[in-house]
Amino acid sequence: MTPALRQAAAAAGAEPAAPPAFDVERVRRDFPALDQTVHGKPLVYLDSAATALKPQAVIDAVTGVYSRDCANIHRAVHLLSQRATAGYERAREAVRRFVNAGSADEIIFTRGTTEGINLVAQSWGRANLREGDEVLITGLEHHSNIVPWQLVCGQTGAHLVVAPITDDGEVRLEDVKARLTDRTKIVAVAQVSNALGTVLPLRPIIDAAHDAGALVLVDGAQGAPHVGVDVQALGCDFYALSGHKLYGPTGAGALFGKRALLEEMPPYQGGGDMILSVTFEETLYAEVPHKFEAGTPNIAGVIGMGAAIEYLEALGVQAAEAHEAALLAYGTEVLEAIPGVRIVGKARDKVAVLSFVMDAAHPHDIGTIVDAEGVAIRTGHHCAQPVMERYCIAATARASLGLYNTREDIDALGRALTRVQEMFG
Questions:
Q1: Which run of H or of E encompasses 45?
Q2: Tens digit of each residue's pLDDT, the chain (425 residues)
Q3: Confidence (pTM)
Q4: Which of 137, 206, 252, 270 is least surrounded by Cβ atoms within 10 Å, i.e. has the fewest?
């Protein structure tokens, strides 16, 4: 639970429960992908920020749809369709519970965070932004929380405004407040930076934005798997997440939106299952959330995402957070002890990500050599090129943690980086 969420819980008079015990070895047995070798060495997977591995429970849920309940949803009275529909809507309730939305009707299924942000930009943005209006983002954003706003600004005449980041990779509240004006209509901000792991001060930002009369969209792609979500405590207007970062399937995600806003927004796409009636003269749209879910969705993916949430809930989200926090601290120590390694992004509040460069080698060379040692990391700009430009670098190597990682995984990364040094001097 992030400091902002802890403060919100304390304000409501609730004491955060102590996390249950976390048995990482038992957790690892749930992930069949870990039971393999890479280049003759046991796989060490440190790329969960790109996509997390999937537990057997999720794999079984997806397989069950195609092997047993393979039918379309909301469209038929036969039993297979009823079962598929029930599983799909059960996943909606799982997402509602996970983000603590007030109603399942406030949960829209999407292909992921990217589509959720595009939905808001095109549906709310095109209907509400005007010439001279402003959209405020931060310098930490993923391309998925930059490009959709650039597109809608180009369509409407609005302007994109950026709050800077510090040398440590933080966004200061005062820098956000300084850029809020009566022209600011929406603030779009990441909960956690995918490139640096920085946890942003969401609740203060949201409060400041609302005081200025602006709405707030939160990019929760990296936040949802690592710091917990409570959209009612945060007070955000929209919250987008991706199932595959949450140990679920790719191609499935969700968007939370306050019902009053969703009801006012026009549909993002047109097609089947988002209508009440269609004639050649007029179409009447379905109620939310179905108004925004045109066409046959990724049924198995959504059901798998629901299974992933149930898996996380059974483990204990706070216990997983505590486990990852301890790993991050250990990983920071290991990397800082290696001569020539520099961690990029040293925010006081960060999670799950160790982004770094080495004096001896380019990040792509680091990634190649580390892979030969059985360790999977990501190298590049991480779809956050403005972050790289802020530090005057082209790329970093990034080790990102998941609930299945161990101190031994970090040690393997350290040995692999020593190998890089040996090869490049």
A1: strand 44-45
A2: 444 444 444 444 445 455 557 999 999 999 999 999 999 999 999 999 999 999 999 999 999 999 999 999 998 999 999 999 999 999 999 999 999 999 999 999 999 999 999 999 999 999 999 999 999 999 999 999 999 999 999 999 999 999 999 999 999 999 999 999 999 999 999 999 999 999 999 999 999 999 999 999 999 999 999 998 999 999 999 999 999 999 999 999 999 999 999 999 999 999 988 889 999 999 898 899 999 999 999 999 999 999 999 999 999 989 999 999 999 999 999 999 999 999 999 999 999 999 999 998 999 999 999 999 999 999 999 999 999 999 999 999 999 999 999 999 999 999 999 999 999 97
A3: 0.94
A4: 270
- Domains of the chain listed by start with CATH number: 3-46+316-424 (3.90.1150.10), 58-313 (3.40.640.10)
**Alpha-carbon distance 333 to 326, whole Å?**
11
Q: Is 153 a catalytic residue?
A: no
* Helix, strand, coil share of the chain (percent; to 5): 45, 15, 40
Report how far residue 378's alpha carbon sits from residue 397's, in angstroms, rounded to the nearest whole number. 6
Catalytic residue among 70, 236, 383, 392: 383
